[in-house]
Amino acid sequence: MSMYTVGSGTTVDHIEVIRGLDDAFEFFGGAFNAKYLIAYNSADDDFDMDDGYHGKIQFAVSIKDPAFTDNKGTTGDISNNFEVDNTTDAKGYLSTPVTFPTLSNFTAIGPNNATGTSTDYGYGMRWRRGSKFILANSIVMGGQKAGMDIDNDVTAQFYIDGVSGFKNSLLQSYGANYNVDPAKLINTALLNAAGLKTLVEGRDGSKSYAVATDIGLTDPFNNQAPNLLPKAGSPALTGASFSATALSDAFFTKVTYVGAIDPANDWTKAARTSFGR
Fold first, then answer.
1. Under a CB-based contact definition with an 8 Å cutoff, are residues 152 and 93 in contact?
2. Distance between CA 79 and CA 135 in Å, rounded?
3. What PANTHER family is this protein classified in (predicted)?
4. What pLDDT, on a 0 to 100 scale, did the predictor assign at position 275?
5. Is 184 exposed, middle or buried (0-12, 13-18, 19+ CB in 10 A)?
6. Which of 121, 194, 214, 221 meets the CB 3.0–4.6 Å disulfide criterion with 144?
7. Residue 123, SS3 per DSSP
8. d(Cα 60, Cα 78) in Å, to the nearest integer?
């Protein structure tokens, strides 16, 4: 589902994209808001935002089939749960409006190195090319190369300055939880993985885990019949916060749980009847 410079007057909710050969949702510019989105087993990125998109999204799911990616050839491209750019033109990383989504209550499930995982899988989150972002109250699990990746000096500086943030969220990855690619930085001293972890888990109040089961979802990696409900004792049952200025907007439903799924009312239950087909 591609949206091109769609304005905030458009209502977008309760949409499911299943097994697309490219991105599930790609938003080129625009300012529309959305709730209740599902990306299931698409081959490239699930939430791809570019060219100045600056809307708000809440309650969204991303699930990856470990064996299914599009044919990358020799492009060097990879498949991610999130891939967010301002612009692909290095000279225009500061072009306005800057891509700046405000996102809350996502649950993103990567391949987690399951048997048969495609070599073209990348990151749970790839923030790059001058983008800003707020991702809060969310769960990102099973990233292949890394959980959270930041590329490019401009993107890194936005995170260092607190303009961007991965807030009050839970992170686990098969690869490293945090990655800052020095080959993508001009100033290689600007930020590294350890510094990113300090910002995410200190200033932004998120937590990372070495083992997926510690997040306590019921059956997140069962691709044919995933169950994303938090179990008893899961850290996802509490801990959400909407105190940040961007999240205090009336658009956001002020829930107490982390991730896309209300423990008392699973809104994905009806949609999941189409999974596994």
1. yes
2. 19
3. LIPL48 (PTHR41339), SECRETED PROTEIN (PTHR41339:SF1)
4. 64
5. middle
6. 121
7. strand
8. 21
Contact of 253 with 58, CB cutoff 8 Å: yes
Q: Under a CB-based contact definition with an 8 Å cutoff, are residues 15 and 1 in contact?
A: yes
Q: What length does the chain have?
A: 277
Distance from C-alpha of 69 to C-alpha of 92, rounded to nearest angstrom: 29
| Confidence tier at 242 by pLDDT (50, 70, 90) | very high
Output Rg (C-alpha) for the chain, integer angstroms.
17
List Cβ neighbours of 50 (8 Å cut-off, separation of 6 or more): 26, 27, 28, 29, 84, 85, 86, 87, 88, 99
Q: Can you tell me the distance from the alpha carbon of 118 to that of 179, in angstroms, rounded to the nearest whole number?
A: 20
Measure the CA–CA gap between 239 and 137, rounded to whole angstroms: 8
- With 0.70 as the threshold, say if the pTM is over it: yes
Q: Considering only the C-alpha atoms of the chain, give the largest distance between any 2 of them, rounded to a whole number of Å.
A: 50
Q: Report yes or no: 140 and 169 within 8 Å, Cβ to Cβ.
A: yes
Dihedral sign for Cα 84, 193, 260, 245, please: negative
CB atoms within 10 A of CB 254: 12
Q: Give the integer Cα–Cα distance in Å for 193 and 126.
A: 14
* Residue closest to 45 by CA, chosen among 2, 11, 86, 100: 2
Q: What is the pLDDT of residues 104-135, one digit of tens each?
A: 999 999 999 999 999 999 999 999 999 999 99
